[in-house]
Amino acid sequence: MNDAGPAAENPAGEVPAREFPAGAMDSRLAPGLYLVATPIGNLGDITLRALDVLKRAARIACEDTRQTQKLLNHFGIATPTVSLHEHNERERAVELVEQLSNGVRIALVSDAGTPGISDPGAWLVSEAIAAGVAVIPIPGANAALSALVASGLPTDEFQFVGFLPEKAGARRTRLEVLFAEAGAAEAPRTLIFYEAPHRILLTLADIEAVWGPGQPVVAARELTKVHEEFLRGTVAEVRRSLESRERIRGEFTVLIAGRPAAQVGPNPAGASSEKVADRVARIQSETGVDEKEALKRLARELGQSKSELYRELQRERASRSKR
Ligand code: SAM
Question: To the nearest whole percent, how much of the chain has pLDDT over 70?
């Protein structure tokens, strides 16, 4: 099958030199799936390559076609769009992979930022790879990395967590597990979360309860937009500062500073610092089950795998025996 759309007008796929600086992009658009990052607020953050691919692709698969159409209209791009969102990704992937296998150039975008990062795309990518289709990243805006590099927190090791669970209990459990993992990590690791404005205070309160009020955090708000703001300080300070506002607007990316080895130990709130060994021992003494069964129950309670917890148990025992 041949490509349709704008690329068909220029079958050789040559880019006129006057339109783009030399070396800014390949002279031909090879067949494949293009993962195109789009701005997270500031339209100036679209890249030359992104515009080129969006123009020359046969189709653009979009998380929300209406949202992407605004971007395409702004840049005068007439490529047809098709929806691909969390509710139809699997069915749509079948159709798109068939076209990709026939040599059609397809671009994938999300509403904002890098597709596949807390956005649809991962399933289509894995299906395309399984079908032997080339997958080509077109890098650009991403809230997590933008927040990280300007946060002032260490960037050498970090963990992207995405969105925390919405339900209070599950969110607290997830944070407790992350806290415990941070304590077991060999080097401090900055944690990065995405959060919605209506949940930011609840999430900061949970972080404060698990890590303690003195924990350094950064809340990056409205990145790349007019009201871009970085709130840096202890979690209690950042929470109070947001709490004092009449209304909390905008999109947030939250970062938690990693715990240096010297600080590893019980947290002020106590809850999450409980070692796996202590939890297992408690379950055993309360219920009379053996260690294996206690680990299984704890894994279920924490939503973690049993083998992961077992490894953590071994690590704790090894570090105790060194002391
Ligand atoms: N794929 C996107 C990326 O590459 O960053 C992320 C999509 S995710 C559905 C949207 C979340 O990213 C928002 O709820 C917010 O937590 C974060 N985010 C997106 N844009 C942001 C911005 N301009 N400033 C701060 N955080 C932002």
Answer: 83
* Ligand 1 atom closest to residue 195's alpha carbon, by position in its atom list: 16
| Reported confidence tier of residue 260, pLDDT bands at 50, 70, 90 | low
Q: What pTM was estimated for this model as a whole?
A: 0.77
- Of residues 139, 151, 162, the one with CA closest to residue 34: 139
For ligand 1, the distance from its centroid to the CA atom of residue 40, given in whole angstroms, is 7
| Ligand 1 midpoint to CA 192 (Å) | 11
At the top level of CATH, the class of 5-141 is alpha beta
Ligand 1, atom 20: nearest CA belongs to which residue?
A: 40
Mean pLDDT of 281-287: 74
Q: 109: CA distance to ligand 1 center in Å? A: 14
Quote the ligand 1 centre to 20 CA distance (angstroms): 29
Torsion sign across C-alpha atoms 26, 28, 31, 36: positive
CB hemisphere CA count around 271 (13 angstroms): 17
Which of 38-47, 243-252, 288-297 is least confident? 288-297
Which of 40, 64, 125, 192 is the pocket-test mutation for ligand 1 (most atoms within 8 Å of CB)?
40
Q: Which atom of ligand 1 is nearest to the CA of 144?
A: 5
Give the class (CATH, top level) of 145-262.
Answer: alpha beta
Confidence at 304, pLDDT banded by 50, 70, 90 = low
Residue ranges of the domains in the chain?
5-141, 145-262, 275-323
Q: How far apart are CA 200 and CA 202, in angstroms?
A: 6
